[in-house]
Amino acid sequence: MNQPNRGQILQTVFSHFFPVASPDSELVPSSLHEDITPILRVAKDVEDTNPRSLFLQDLDIKSVDDSINILSGHSHALDKANELDPTSSGRDVRQFKNTILQWLEKNNESTLKARQKSSDAHEMQSFYQQYGDEGINDLLNAGAGSSSSQRTKIYQTAVVLYDVLDAVHRKANIKVAAKILESHAEVEAKNKIYVPYNILPLDPDSKNHAMMRDPKIVAVLKAIRYTSDLTWQIGHKINDDEDVLDWLKTMFRFQKDNVSNQREHLILLLANVQMRQTQRQPNLLDDRALDTVMEKLLGNYNKWCNHVGLESSLRFPKDKQQKVVQQRKLLYTGLYLLIWGEAANLRFMPECLCYIYHHMAFELFEMLESKGSKKKYKPKNPTYSGKDEDFLTKVVTPVYKTIAEEAKKSGEGKHSEWRNYDDLNEYFWSKQYLDKLGWPMKANADFFCKTSQQLGLNKSEKKPDLGDGCVGKVNFVEIRTFWHLFRSFDRMWSFYILSLQAMIIIAWNETSESGGAVFHKVLSVFITAAKLNLFQAFLDIALSWKARHSMSTHVRQRYIFKAVAAAVWVLLMPLTYAYSHTSIFIVAILIYLSPNMLPEMLLLIPSIRRTLEKSDFRPVKLIMWWSQPELYIGRGMHESAWSIYKYMMFWIVLLTSKLAFSYYVEQIKPLMGPTKEIMSVPMPGYWLPEFFPHVKNNRGVVITLWSPVILVYFMDTQIWYAIVSTLVGGLYGAFRHIGEIQTLGMLRSRFQSLPGAFNACLIPNENTKEKGIKLAFSRKCHKIPNTNGKEAKQFSQMWNTIINSFREEDLISNRELELLLMSCWAYPDLDFIRWPIFLLASKIPIAVDIAKKRNGKHRELKNILAEDNCMSCAVRECYASIKKLLNTLVTGNSDLMLITTVFTIIDTHIEKDTLLTELNLSVLPDLHGHFVKLTEYVLQNKDKDKIQIVNVLLKILEMVTKDILKEEIKRLHLLLTVKESAMDVPSNLEARRRLTFFSNSLFMEMPGAPKIQNMLSFSALTPYYSEDVLFSTFDLEKENDGVSILFYLQKIFPDEWKNFLERVKCGTEEELDAIDYLKEEIRLWASYRGQTLTKTVRGMMYYQKALELQAFFDLANERELMKGYKSAEASSSGSSLWAECQALADIKFTYVVACQQYSIHKRSGDQRAKDILTLMTTYPSLRVAYIDEVEQTHIYSKGTSENFYYSALVKAAPQTYSTDSSDSGHMLDQVIYQIKLPGPPIIGEGKPENQNNAIIFTRGEALQTIDMNQDYYIEEAFKMRNLLQEFLEKNGGVRYPTILGLREHIFTRSVSCLAWFMSNQEHSFVTIGQRVLANPLKVRFHYGHPDVFDRVFHLTRGGVSKASKVINLSEDIFAGFNSTLREGTVSHHEYIQVGKGRDVGLNQISMFEAKIANGSGEQTLSRDLYRLGHQFDFFRMLSCYFTTVGFYFCSMLTVLTVYVFLYGRLYLVLSGVEKELGNKPMMMEIILASQSFVQIVFLMAMPMIMEIGLERGFYDALFDFVLMQLQLASVFFTFQLGTKFHYYCKTLLHGGAEYRGTGRGFVVFHAKFAENYRFYSRSHFVKATELGILLLVYHIFGPTYIGLFTISIWFMVGTWLFAPFLFNPSGFEWHEIVEDWADWKKWIEYDNGGIGVPPEKSWESWWEKDIEHLQHSGKWGIVVEIFFALRFFIFQYGLVYQLSAFKNKYSSLWVFGASWLLILILLLTVTVLDYARRRLGTEFQLLFRIIKVSLFLAFMAIFITLMTCRLILPQDVFLCMLALIPTGWGLLLIAQSCKPLIQQPGIWSWVMTLAWVYDLVMGSLLFIPIAFMAWFPFISEFQTRMLFNQAFSRGLHISRILSGQRKHRSSKNKD
User: Fold this and answer.
1) What GO CC terms are in its UniProt record?
2) Which long-range CB contacts under 8 A does 615-619 form with residues at least 24 apart?
3) How far apart are CA 540 and CA 475, in angstroms?
4) 267 partner at 20 to 30 Å CA-CA among 550, 703, 1106, 1842?
């Protein structure tokens, strides 16, 4: 047997890892990937050319161990293997090698037979020479004719081939030919030059590339390559193309790929800025452009230097040439970009980067100055400049490790016990700490402090002295408590409390006191204010206590001084009030208020206040010391005076309305009379024991009655906010022309104005568009001359691009496409715009009919044509088309002369305006009919019709096959035949919506469009983890209850499915299934209707298409424009106009998808990686960034390895051989950049970390963040350059916007009724809600995608999101917080929209709501919200509160009001007080009832009704609202109220916030009962059960009157119990119920848990996980949990005395004690049974049964005895159950909270048993009514029609009938 060769390794690897015929080069272990993958890729390319060469290339795998060495007999293979992984210790390496060995043994013989030469060496040499002759030489000869990507690929291939050739020759002891060595040397040199590039090909041969010919690019390149004044390190070989960034690399030891990445970044940034500058010297870099970039990049650094008191390191030489100064600026700018590009996780700490940059820039300055110094000394080297990658290892890595170590504590620790990104960053806000850290950074500095555990010390060992100690939390501590709400918004709470006190005083004394006396009493509110101020000062100290050592001295002094001052005023105020005159007390008040007067007065002069706040001048800081903490951020945030006036008036109106309503109508004044009466009633006799026997009045009763009213008082501002914001938002939207074009009829009526509006908005021109109030009241439509000129051509091409996009998306049919397209062919005879056929529909038939009926009445005909411009255009175009058609078809001289004569006569009459009077128009109908037939015959072109055409036309019949003439004949035929049916084109609702919105937006206010060269450049970034890229065929056809996703989509998108079949030319689904290659089209069609990455990428790549078309409009001359962009695109070449358009688009736009796990998916053969690669191949401009984890084995340390992490960017690799494009195996990616990281980058929240990893690969001045569940539209992409201009306009503000908010359209509304509810709710928020937030309130933040960021501003200030674990769970909104705190501003724009998907199933929606509620809970604890609450003025602070955490806190108060009301009423009922007082407490319920229903109606429905009314009409809005109620929207929203309440409270008390992936899929499957129980048990079922028991007891002992508020609570109870099953697909199908019961019994089975058992499989595992958050809760959280659990014992206390044996007889406390004795007996019984079951249940089964029977008989005997003796009655048994059930639950809650104290095996097992019994009983009781309703088929029918639209409901029933046939067909397809 011949010895195996290394070439066989290739096939072996992939036959094992990916079983296909040809090997996959991507499935290589990460430790071998870098060396082996290039060889395998080359082998794939040459596989078909030379099989033996393929075999031999596989030889050079280099990683074969001793077993392969025995076979090969050559030491070289072993040496190479030992060099890489001698012990096969890397992950999957041994498996990789064994598979190779098996393939070697199997395929050696066959490859030897295929060998053409005598030996492997000669075979390889022959192939290499052939490749050189045919590949490399042709490439060299082609020169600039080949692309840079092709050259790069060919040279890389040649290098790999030579490596294989050299290895084979050395094995055979043959020298490589000199000619080959010479060729290889040239190739090797070229290979170093031609590296993969991202956007700019910077190799020497790409000078003629369209981008590289741009003068701005050339100018920037020339500037950065000026290095003649720089001194390189000794030994460095200088190349001609090296630049200042290369010099920085050699001096500071940055990574090569980081330099390459930032080089392109800097070039594009400077070039794009220079494009907007007025050209001075076109071939030189303009200093203005460089200064602009430098100012934006280094603005934060300069501000930081001023704050910490450091002199800036940006120092420039004096009296130097401009080139030298410019070079210095480029060096400073490039240095910052290189630091930022390699900083990894440090990018979240902008001031840390400022610190690093400050010292490195100073070292740069010293190096440059030492070169120019006259003194002779050695130039100074940087501190960290020894080895390669020193910057990473010595600067970035130490800081990163500190971050990583702190992040590890976040898993189980509290926020206060670890430092997050903000804490570590704020360390660099103090010069004191900077001096301690020093430069070079001291390893023993307090910043790097380590715990004993990190140092590896035992508890007994003493920690060594590491310096100044550990710096913990800095400036702020996130303590988990509700008091953060008061601390952050203390001014608001003080205002409410003082207002309430004042109103109560006035109402109480309104009739009994004089005005002066009442005024004096009202002044007592300032005593309360002083107490509240003291409480606030106490909270500041208490909640910041853990940061006392790390906060600066002036902050500590400020806290102490404020506390002392507040304490003094608490003493002085009561004394002054009690012992002095009112006037003296007023003076004291003025003195008390004086420290806060200056900031409030300066509110009216915001420019002065901004200046004072931003100043770092010491005297100014002293003046502002009291009102503003000395922090780096949160200063100068005040808006303009006009903006302040607007939101001030908003809140004055709102608060006035709220307080007046509360006082006069609802809460204060109406309740004073009943309250006085209650207070005057003598103390009633209590049925319960009196704990306070000496109380002489009814204050306790008043507190009980007023408590829910007070809660409503604090909560109802949210309702008033909903009312006022709806009115303001609706008014604002109306003034902005929103919804002016609502229907197709409105679109047709204004369509002729569209070209003018398009020209004014989307075409660069000098005319300024009306803005502001002028535009709001303007009804003038933009019009252009009705000529077929340049403007019309531009509009028609843009319009046709949109319509063609609709057809590609299957929104319209082929016929609708023809009716909607505008004709782009120029007619010399036509001087007007040729409108789309749908606009001219039925105009010709109507005109013919009118002409026939009114023959001779030429004046009427002229008036009709004059009034109807569309009819006039249709008639003129029809005449011109017929004239051209006949002149084209007729060639005979006599016939042509006759036709010419006829048309000449007609033209003469037209010129003289005598056509209608001289010609007989009655024959027009006959002529019309003949022309219709003629066009039909010509279009069909059938032989049998030729006899119907005159002989003269037969001769030239073949001419109709020409495209232009054919299109014109089609148009003429449509003009002649189309009737009224075209008026409803397009019929698809989505197409209608998009067309009407786009048309409407052209009449809205937007900035003028700049030319493409002058627009801001931008990038789009999409974070992706592991969601669906493209639906697989299996996923689409997989059925659940007879319903597949594909079937589901066909039913809810029937018209789009029909259009799809028409597009792929299939009449039926069966024809479609028969064609294999159309399966990919089906996958795409379905994926475009889901929430997939493919849909998002397609939408975002419309930017590329739109920019190319707009660039064509800018660059094309008149002749090229008339030909159209498609003509330019078809003739594209390296020097063509279209190449320039593409180059401009590439310069202006970049799209990066951050596929975090792309490398993992690729190496595991995951289909998602292949689908992503397909996307890159389909869209060559798409880039994918990912985190590459590479395993590296240690050569000298056996069995050990280390993982290294890289930020990588890839694109689709070019193809050098023509292969079948459908073969996915030939699609490869190409690594562009690979930047090493200091460690695993995902140490915080995953999504922001993923964004941070990819942001370094984005380009431009703006960055749009797009989630992977979003979509975009071609028509909206045309408006992007207008939107970007918003960054250059202040729009009445004082600063340029830093975030542009966009409107969103929820495209999942048609999926189900739940999706519709969520769509309407979300739609109102992203439109009218954010409209008001941005203007007038000025508190719009970042609520997720698709906002556009000022990229340069944010990359220097922490990025586009925050990533600290847990606290930044809602990472998006923190970007808005951060931007606002750093003097940015956020605007909102509604003339552009982006599609967005939402969750469509109840469980998905609930998980999303839970995540948002968790995030809001964490926001409540955050420093960002605290600083906004304190640094905003009072009115803006109110806006911030009620639009962020206030909404969730008010939702919590809504539910708490129910609890307080019920427990209070229960107290009144059970104690007998209510009976004594009569009906006086009823007033409280009436008030609460009105409040409850006002909340439901206004809070939920009013914004939705207003926005739908604006956009579609108020009739549709009202209809939608009624329909939503019929589909149980109130049930849905009430249920979600419980979700918000539970998770917000849980987060604030105990934590447990986490990201919850919802899947974003279609929910057509049934959720199991056990799954619903797990998810909703604690959040809804338990609370609903408690409320139900309270209501039941209240109705038993209370009055017969049932109020509206009580009814609403019953509604809430029913909703919380049964909504999950009501909205569960097939929730009432009997067969599903049976399966659910079996699954429930299996899950609830006791003792089926344990370590490693998931919660989905075991009740025990689920229960342990459910209470896990209590183990990490703080002490106060546990105390609060126990305190609230005591309410169940109070409930028991009340019910015990209602037993017939004790009622009205015994009121002693021993009765209550006896009830506890009974509880203990029951618990002991349960414990005995549990113990017996565990001990005796297996081996002593009989004894266990005897014990159970004995206990049962004993209890029955006791029960019968008590009943016989009349000691208890039957109703007493029921009351005992009602009392004991809550008591047991309360004991269980307390036990769970105290788990660490009682976690002894015996005790804890009792607790677990009790919990299991409760879940078993509660779940079983829930299941009974569901099973009962499943008996009735009509309930299931109703549910299906309610959940899904009618078309799907009908299809669902049909599918069940035909399910057997479809399954049979599916199985046949698989076969």
Assistant:
1) 1,3-beta-D-glucan synthase complex; plasma membrane
2) 616/306, 616/307, 616/309
3) 11
4) 1106
The residue whose two tokens read 């109620």 is 1525
- Helix or strand or coil: residue 512? coil
Q: For residue 1209, give the amino acid letter.
A: L
Determine the Cα–Cα distance for residues 1529 and 1517; give it in Å rounded to an integer. 15
Tens digit of pLDDT for each residue in 1421-1455? 999 999 999 999 999 999 999 999 999 999 999 89
Separation of alpha carbons 1106 and 1123, rounded Å: 18
Alpha-carbon gap, residue 925 to 923, rounded angstroms: 6
φ, ψ dihedrals at 1703, nearest 5°: -65, 125
CB distance 1348 to 1103 below 8 Å: no
Two tokens, residue 1376: 């808005």
Q: How far apart are CA 498 and CA 1193, in angstroms?
A: 70
Query: Which of these, 10, 24, 8, 15, lies nearest to 1165 by C-alpha position?
Result: 24
What is residue 968's DSSP assignment? H
CA 991 to each of CA 778, 795, 883: distance values in angstroms, whole numbers, following the listed order: 28, 19, 35
Q: Which two tokens stand for residue 315?
A: 């120092």
Distances (CA, A) of 260 to 364, 1204, 1213, 1541: 20, 21, 19, 51
DSSP string of 1338-1366?
Answer: ------STT-EEEHHHHHTTT-SS---TT
Its sign, for the CA torsion 876, 877, 878, 884, is positive
pTM over 0.85: yes
How many alpha carbons lie under 13 Å from residue 1104 in its C-beta half-sphere?
Answer: 18
**How far is Cα 1848 from Cα 1835, in angstroms, rounded to an integer?**
17
Residue 1150 bridge partners (DSSP): 1019
pLDDT tens profile 606-639: 888 887 777 777 777 777 777 777 889 988 888 8
What's the residue count for the chain?
Answer: 1871
Query: 1151: which strand partners?
Result: 1020, 1182
Q: What own/partner pairs with CB < 8 Å and gap ≥ 24 does 1795-1798 have?
A: 1795/1667, 1795/1670, 1795/1671, 1796/1671
The one-letter amino acid code at 35 reads: D
> For the chain (length 1871 residues), average pLDDT per consecutive 10?
37 32 54 64 58 43 31 30 53 60 60 61 71 61 57 74 74 75 74 82 83 90 89 77 91 94 96 85 86 94 92 85 89 96 95 96 89 53 83 94 89 80 92 89 82 44 45 85 93 95 90 77 92 93 86 82 92 87 87 82 80 75 73 88 93 95 84 81 60 63 85 90 92 90 87 88 73 54 55 87 94 91 68 80 78 66 75 80 74 70 76 70 72 72 54 39 56 75 82 94 92 94 92 85 82 91 87 85 92 94 95 88 79 71 94 94 88 93 94 62 90 62 61 94 93 95 93 95 93 88 88 84 89 93 88 94 91 92 93 89 89 93 93 94 94 91 85 68 58 55 86 87 87 92 92 77 80 94 94 82 77 93 88 91 78 85 89 84 90 78 63 78 75 67 76 78 72 80 90 83 79 91 92 83 65 51 43 45
Do 889 and 953 meet the contact criterion of CB atoms below 8 Å apart? yes
Q: Is 205 helix (H, G, I), strand (E, B) or coil?
A: helix
Instruction: Report residue 1594: phi and psi, to 5°.
Output: -60, -40
CB 1367 within 8 A of CB 1260: no
How does 495-515 read in b/e, with b if 16+ C-beta sit within 10 Å? ebbbbbbbbbbbbbbeeeeee
HEC string of 1182-1242? Answer: EEEEEEEEEEEECCCCCCCEEEEEEEEEEEECCCCCCCCCCCHHHCCEEEEEEEECCCCCC
